[in-house]
Amino acid sequence: MFNRKLILQALFLCFLIVGSIVIIQQQRKAPYQHHKGMVFGTSYSIIYQHSSNLQTQIQRCLQDVDDALSPFNPHSVITQVNNNQPVQVNDMFVDVFEMAQSVASDTHGAFDITVAPLVNAWGFGFKHNRFPEPAVVDSLRQLVGYDKVKLTPQGIGKYKVEKGDARMMLDCSAIAKGYGCDAVARLLRKEGITNFMVEIGGEVVAQGHNEKQQAWRIGVSKPIDDSLAVHTELQTVLHMTHHAMATSGNYRNFYYKDGKKYAHTIDPRTGYPVQHSLLSATVVAKSCALADAYATAFMVMGVDSARQILQRHSNLSAFLIYADKEGKLATWHSPQLGQLLKE
To answer: Are 322 and 277 in contact (CB under 8 A)?
Structure first.
């Protein structure tokens, strides 16, 4: 009886081993699917290893994110919030709002999704060569502040946004692309996919290996004055197997007036474009939305303040490119990022 039990256990173990080998072999033989398109006003590229084409599910997932967070979608949740329509926000909106508020608090308002009025005013100025007057900036600052908006419970699991001033506007563009990457990555993982790369507008979630059975190679662009993005050089390459990454930079979004260079990044705390040496911030984090938000915050804060934030968070790492005292490109990266870098 005892020997029979051992034999059955051994047979079962062999069955598991053989089954696992067969599954692994099938996974290795599965083709890599490639999808490209446009979403959130930018391009996306998604690669994953699977026997079936999941383009329909992916597009539905991206549409769900757009329906929650796009200010250009007239029917989106965020548009209804900005228009002061009576709307109960959905789970995606709640996820992003709560994460945004957490990062805003941690960075003392350097990241702030209520900055939209200032961004719009300066964007108009950049476009039409007419910067907003100080009095206009001061008045718009009254409509900006992450502590002036909150989620109010409307029953179990139901919330609405409460604004301190009805004229306040929310803009999640500095976190939505990262969140979209996370959403697609969750979809792929639910399908049992272990090898994939999701990229939306330069924000990336990578897992497993590429078609060459190597880590995904994700480039970090060298920050050169190239507003039209005609010339692209890589500063470095990250080798990623289970990471999320986002990059924010001013080097392709700037404007010259009266001999002075203005970045398009607006500091929500002052109401004016940032003026410091940081040119590009690449952040690696547990989620792409988190990396996206902190990369934006670092571009507002500058090198020294960004490094202070990084010292407090072991789950964040960054690659910073800045101009040194002589105006030459210099870099700094978190120690834990070293294993991902290829100089």
So the answer is: yes
**From residue 38, how far is each of 25, 44, 45, 320 by CA, in Å?**
34, 6, 9, 28
| 212: three-class secondary structure by DSSP | coil
Classify strands 317-323 and 216-221 as parallel, antiparallel or unpaired.
Answer: unpaired
Contact (CB, 8 A) for 335 and 314: no
- Does an H or E element contain 332, and which? strand 329-333
pLDDT of amino acid 6: 62
Up-side HSE of residue 40: CA atoms within 13 Å toward CB?
Answer: 26
Q: Are strands 196-200 and 203-207 parallel, antiparallel or unpaired?
A: antiparallel
Query: Lowest-pLDDT range, 15-29, 173-187, 252-266?
Result: 15-29
- Pairwise CA distance, residues 179 & 127, whole Å: 28
What pLDDT is recorded for position 275? 85
Token pair listed for 320: 């910073």
- Alpha carbon distance 40, 69 (integer Å): 9
Q: How far is CA 240 from CA 23, 113, 196, in A?
A: 24, 29, 11
217, exposed or middle or buried, with CB in 10 Å at 0-12, 13-18, 19+? middle
Q: What is the CA radius of gyration of the chain?
A: 23
- Residue 127 is classified by DSSP as H
State the Cα–Cα distance between residues 128 and 70, nearest whole angstrom: 25
**How far apart are alpha carbons 73 and 69 in whole angstroms?**
8
Closest CA to 100 of 145, 157, 63, 67: 145
Which token pair is 307?
């490094």
* Residue 188, amino acid: L
The reported pLDDT for the residue numbered 157 is 79
| DSSP summary character for residue 133 | P
Q: Has residue 228 got a pLDDT over 50?
A: no
Task: Give the closest residue to 102 by CA, choosing from 286, 320, 294.
Answer: 294
